[in-house]
Amino acid sequence: MKIHPTVTLSRVEQAVERRMSSLDNPGFCVACGADADGCEPDAREYECEVCGELAVYGAAEVLMELA
Ligand SMILES: [Zn+2]
Q: Is residue 18 part of a domain?
């Protein structure tokens, strides 16, 4: 998976923590780096609202790629 350079490990870790401490379901578009919401933790290839690519992944999925 190619991950946009603005999707950094610290950003993804914060999103995973936010998911545990709130009802947010954060994710990231790995094509353009946009934040996405309403993602299942294991979401893969959801459509990005910003760039239209099927490149939105749940935070936990992106974390596994970066770790
Ligand atoms: Zn995008």
A: yes
User: What pTM, to 2 d.p., does this model score?
Assistant: 0.92
Provide the Cα torsion 29, 30, 32, 37; round to 10°.
10
Give the mean pLDDT of 25-38.
96
For residue 54, give its domain range.
Answer: 9-66
Q: How far apart are CA 32 and CA 18, in angstroms?
A: 21
State in Å: Cα 57 to ligand 1 middle: 10
Domain count, the chain: 1
pLDDT tens digits, one per residue of 53-63: 999 999 999 99
Expressed in angstroms and rounded, the spacing between residue 23 Cα and the centre of ligand 1 is 22
Does 1 map to a domain?
no
Residue 36 lies in a domain: yes
Distance 67 CA to ligand 1 centre (A): 21
